[in-house]
Amino acid sequence: MTTLDVLIVGLGATHGLRAAEDELAGSLLRAGAEAMLVRAERPREVRTLALTDLVWARAARRAAVEALSESDPRAIVYATTTAALMWPQPGAIRFDAPAAGNRPGRHGVWQRPVEARRLRQAPLLVPQDPGALAEAGSPDTPSVIVPIPVEPSEARPGETRDIAAMTYATNPYKKGLDRVLAAWEVARNAGEELVVAGLRGPDRDGVRYAGTLSTDAYRALLRRTRVYVTAPRREDYGLAQLEALADGARVVTTAAPGPYAALPLLREGGLGWVVEPDAAALGRAIRAALEDERDDAVYAEHALVAIAPFRRASVDAVVREQLLPRLVHGAERE
Fold first, then answer.
1. How far apart are CA 5 and CA 92, in angstroms?
2. Is pTM beyond 0.85 here?
3. Are the CB atoms for 260 and 237 separated by under 8 Å?
4. Angle at 305 between CA 300 and CA 309, to 5 degrees
5. CA gap 147, 70 in Å, rounded
6. What is the pLDDT of residues 25-76, one digit of tens each?
7. End-to-end alpha-carbon separation of the chain, Å?
8. How many domains does the chain fold into?
9. What per-residue confidence (pLDDT) applies to 1?
């Protein structure tokens, strides 16, 4: 049986979750821990959010049980509250947003009470942002806030910002694609194009759908983009906005409920445009961002300074100095 410091049980259901899980595993390894990441096998598609969480929770339990049959970890981290709902044994819980915030009404009828119990039973909570902890009701369980690391991607020779605007819309309603498209009709000039990543759709004048992209292809588009625009109805974290800042794109957004880690930077750092979700206001902000007179290199440098707490070196320090000691030594005290 393999001896481990930390077993991470992830879902890997989306690009964002996989990136967050990989980054946590990488940080733990760089901190000197023996860490292993296992992921749930993707379950069948079901019709409701309540059933979706049920089949994913069962898949996460199966992955954890199999890993525990072959390893003896000193600590377990369940990456998302969904992964912890049917845990085979208690462990720390890492999450961007709780069901208490993103599963209202019938969508979270069974998840919310189970989640509240798990958050009380866990030895440690590892939210990605203070807002996530607040949405969870600020439980008495000890916590360490560990953001998702974000780094600028590697530029290619000769790249220019030849794409006027870009948005990410894997979940079109939640990401407010309808709002973005309406605002783009207000904002765009002849010859300007909005690229919609993460979704297929019918291209039209001024709008091109790029579909699902690899991480490298997505970041390559960001490096060519002048303005990243989003109008979410809810934002659990906002990784895409942080990636846009890391790659030097201006960011236009609406405020939204949810932890939305990037929002304070955009509001207070002079980096973005935060407006109301109506087409006129959002369109004016997009136009202002497109016509921003700041030099691209100056803006990009300012953005990198602002996101310093989210960069890998800063997050690695939190994992090394706070998270790993709490995971390992906390387990030893039990």
1. 13
2. yes
3. yes
4. 130
5. 30
6. 999 999 999 999 999 999 999 999 999 999 999 999 999 999 999 999 999 9
7. 21
8. 2
9. 76
**What letters, b where the CB count within 10 A reaches 16 and e where it falls short, cover 136-161?**
beeeebebbbbbbbbbbeeeeeeeee
Are the CB atoms for 125 and 142 separated by under 8 Å? yes
One domain for residues 81 and 220: no
Within a domain: 325: yes
Return the structure tokens found at 237: 């974290």
Q: Coil, strand or helix: which one is 40? A: coil
Output the six-digit token pair for 211: 């579909």
- For the record, the structure tokens of 191 come out as 């010859």
Q: 180 and 256 in one domain?
A: yes
Q: What's the rounded Cα separation, in Å, for the pair 88 and 118?
A: 12
Q: H-helix or E-strand containing 38?
A: strand 35-39
Rg (CA), the chain: 20
At 268, which amino acid appears?
A: E
Would you state the structure tokens that stand for residue 84, as one six-digit string? 């912890």
d(CA 220, CA 250): 15
* Domain residue limits at 199: 163-310
Question: Over the stretch 206-216, which tens digit does the pLDDT of each residue have?
Answer: 999 999 999 89
For residue 289, give the CATH number of its domain.
3.40.50.2000
3-state secondary structure of 126: strand
